Amino acid sequence: MIPLGFFQVLVIQVNLILIQLRIGESLAIPLLSEPIQIRGVLAEKHAFVHLSGRERREIECQVGHYLHPNETHCCIKCHKGTYLSEHCSGSDKAPKCSVCPENAFMPTENNSPKCFACQSCRTSFQQIIKFSCTKWENTVCGCDSNQYKTTGDSEFLCKNCSDCHNGKIRQDCTSDSDTICECHRGFFLQEDQNKCLPCSSCNKEDCQEQCETGMETKRPSNSTELVSVLSFLTIMFAIGFVALTFRTCKKYFPERRFFSSCTSGEQLKKQLASKTADKAKNSLLDIKEETILGTMQVLPLGNSQGQELPDCIKSARETRISDSPVVLYAVMDAVPVLRWKEFVRNLGLSENTIERIFFDHRPVRDAQYETLKEWRLLANHDATMERISQVLSKMDLSGCIEDIQEALAKQ
């Protein structure tokens, strides 16, 4: 026979167990915690005591795997160049991977349901195909040789590299950047076009500094223009006066016209002294003859009077002039500055060569020297005093020939 107090004790114990179960559920006290290692899965199962007695699991996949959509297991990823066409049925099963179709690629391991489409190079932007599209790499577009990309994205435009006309190349053109130009004097760099433009077209502040020197040269003040005109008139008057004096002297003293430069100074003085004694009509005539003595020692190289020159003059004028600075400076000092470009142009230098030398050598005298050297180099054996004499005669500057001969005779 069961005691009456037994049922009461049993009810109390059952109530205590129910209370413990409720407390454990509310506090989420784990009763089981152990790591579980499955192929392709690094999962940790946390079991919690619920009223229903079920367990809840959280799965974390290893590198190179992905979680199945059902979140029940992990599957290995497909290789690059393929895409996922069917999931694996279990953690120990492989998924079904298919090769990317034509004009599609997949660059990495994946669980993507399709591959990426290959890009096309835009011929309207002058793009060309550098590397064709493969199963695992996209198309690589670029520019042709002597071209560069305007931007770094796929919508870049190919442009031709600048040739730095009217300037020189400071840095060569690359596939991603245009040529860096350095302009000559008298030109400024238009950055948006990367061109060297003449300073005469400068109308903005950004080119004022580059063209400051060139603009002063090309836009002289009124006073400078006046001085230039007066200098020109003075020189022309002096040249006319010298020519008139020379012609007058030849009219009154025709016998002195053909003195040879081969005659020594002592012989010349004796000849002049005897003729002066015979024709000493008045003191003014004596003064004129003594004055002409110094100017008639060296004869013009031209043969315009129809008389044949001595052999020594023929050989001298047909010999190529030396590159001695004394000879070059003698020619520079004799020819008027304002007619120098006309002089070297008649010698045979091109207009572009003359302008280039005058741009590179800002002092006028340095430019004169360089143009004469350039002509001597280009003319080679034709660079003779004969040629210089012909050009000066053509320019009606015969008086300059005597100046050159006198300067060389004093050396």
Automatic annotation (TrEMBL):
Would you indicate the residue range of the signal peptide?
1-28
What UniProt keywords are attached to this protein's entry? Apoptosis, Disulfide bond, Glycoprotein, Membrane, Receptor, Repeat, Signal, Transmembrane, Transmembrane helix
Pfam families, alphabetized:
Death (PF00531), TNFR_c6 (PF00020)
* Single GO MF annotation: tumor necrosis factor binding
Listed under GO biological process in this entry are: apoptotic process; inflammatory response
The record's annotation in CDD domains points to: Death_TNFR1, TNFRSF1A
Q: Where are the TNFR-Cys repeats?
A: 99-141, 142-181
**What InterPro entries is this protein classified in?**
DEATH-like_dom_sf (IPR011029), Death_dom (IPR000488), TNFR/NGFR_Cys_rich_reg (IPR001368), TNFRSF1A (IPR052493), TNFRSF1A_death (IPR033994), TNFRSF1A_N (IPR033993)
Could you tell me which PROSITE patterns the record lists for this protein?
DEATH_DOMAIN, TNFR_NGFR_1, TNFR_NGFR_2
User: For this UniProt entry, which segments traverse the membrane?
Assistant: 226-246
Annotated Death domain ranges read 325-408
Residue ranges annotated for the TNFR-Cys domain, each copy included:
99-141, 142-181
* Keyword Chloroplast tagged: no
SS bond list: C100-C115, C143-C158
Give the record's GO CC terms.
membrane raft; receptor complex
Kindly provide the name given to this protein in its UniProt entry. Answer: Tumor necrosis factor receptor superfamily, member 1A
Record the organism.
Crotalus horridus (Timber rattlesnake)
